[in-house]
Amino acid sequence: MKKYIHLLLLGCFSFLFSKAQEPVIDYGYPVRYMNLTLEQQQVKMAYMDVMPEKPNGETVLLLHGKNFNGFYWKELTGFLSAKGYRVVVPDQVGWGKSDKPGIHYSFHMLAENTRKLLDGLQVNKVQVIAHSMGGMLGTRFTLMYPERVKSLVLENPIGLEDYRTFVPYEPLDSAYKTELAATYESYRNYQKTYYPVWKEEYEPLVAAQAFILKSSHFTQAAWANALSSQMIYEQPVCYEFGKIAVPTLLVIGQEDRTIVGKNRLSKEAALMHGQYPQLGKRTQEQIPGSKLAALAGIGHIPHIQDFNTFIKTVMPFLEQQ
After folding, report:
1. What is the C-alpha to C-alpha distance for residues 309 and 99, in angstroms, rounded to an integer?
2. pTM greater than 0.90
3. How is residue 250 annotated by DSSP?
4. Terminal CA-to-CA distance of the chain, rounded, Å?
5. Quick one: which of 224, 219, 157, 201 has its CA closest to 304?
6. Is 21 helix (H, G, I), strand (E, B) or coil?
7. DSSP-derived pairing of the beta strands 291-295 and 149-155
8. DSSP state of 220
9. Closest Cα partner for 136 from 241, 59, 275?
10. Pairing mode, if any, of strands 86-90 and 41-50?
11. Which residue of 24, 53, 67, 201 is most buried, as measured by CB atoms within 10 A?
């Protein structure tokens, strides 16, 4: 196991030693691109479409969080494919290997892009697994295209509360300056808050986020990051959970205390929010017929921190749909 982690780290960090070309990070599966026109701009959306050897007729759509991309779905993609699922893994426009245009980011736009991707792949219906910010997108996608969603898994989604009601507003230019000042260490320090205990095996996820620091497109990415932070803040989905009409499973790591904009709160205010044990229960009560899986001792990324527990929690739900 240690040898595997060491090799993985070397692969992830290889971009740090290459100045002659754009940094590259290996997602584990072939990455393809779809052309889109957004606000009169031609952009490319990266995605993986992993076909199983023995198809079971089902397709799973994986939606990543804000500080992530298709890389962190690698193990889950392999597992699902081995079980017969076709797995579609987009990098949303603005993230990962996709273009990062300076446009108005909205969950409606990201959902429509995702629908166009599925149309292009001739995928009519999906089971959605959506993590963190992906949970907000997964909610919007389900509300916009309920006929395309067979089931929805919300894995420690952000947006279970309206950040506008307690997090001070941050002007876009200020958010951009913060993004420009990012370092490998600042990314790591933030990701450390996702786990009760930090382990060396989580380091590749930092590298997968930080590869953009060495890119010639870093300033574009920083602006896109600022714009997407504004999107999260200004476009809550928590008032619409009651409209979700597909089978839904909430997977909630009980140690998660994520708050978007937490650094702008006092310690006292921070303790009053981001309480995922309570937020999970409240959201489960709001989504008709939904189920809640409360995972003790687990933080913001269950499928990374404890893959086996995540699989044992999610697979029965997927299989019964």
Report:
1. 34
2. yes
3. E
4. 34
5. 201
6. coil
7. unpaired
8. H
9. 241
10. antiparallel
11. 67
Helix pair 133-144, 107-120: axis angle to 10 deg: 70
Instruction: Please answer whether residues 36 and 46 qualify as being in contact, where contact means their C-beta atoms are separated by less than 8 angstroms.
Output: no
CATH code of 2-319, in short, is: 3.40.50.1820
Neighbouring residues of 200: CB distance < 8 A, sequence distance ≥ 6:
5, 9
- Residue 21's pLDDT is 63
Along the 321 residues of the chain, how does pLDDT read in single tens digits?
433 344 444 444 444 433 446 788 999 999 999 999 999 999 999 999 999 999 999 999 999 999 999 999 999 999 999 999 999 999 999 999 999 999 999 999 999 999 999 999 999 999 999 999 999 999 999 999 999 999 999 999 999 999 999 999 999 999 999 999 999 999 999 999 999 999 999 999 999 999 999 999 999 999 999 999 999 999 999 999 999 999 999 999 999 999 999 999 999 999 999 999 999 999 999 999 999 999 999 999 999 999 999 999 999 999 999
Measured in whole angstroms, the distance separating CA 292 from the mean position of its chain's CA atoms is 19
For the chain, the domains span: 2-319
Distance, CA of 271 to CA of 231 (rounded, Å): 24
CA distances from 83 to 51, 80, 311 (A): 11, 5, 12
Long-range contacts of range 260-264, CB-CB < 8 Å, 24 or more positions apart? 260/158, 260/159, 260/163, 260/167, 260/229, 260/232, 260/233, 261/163, 261/167, 261/168, 261/170, 261/233, 262/167, 264/167, 264/168, 264/170
Structure tokens at 98: 């996709």
Residues 18 and 24: their CA atoms lie apart, in Å, by 9
Give the integer Cα–Cα distance in Å for 44 and 26. Answer: 18
The 10 Å Cβ neighbour count of residue 213 is: 17
Contact 277, 294 (CB under 8 A): yes
Closest CA to 96 of 24, 30, 36: 24
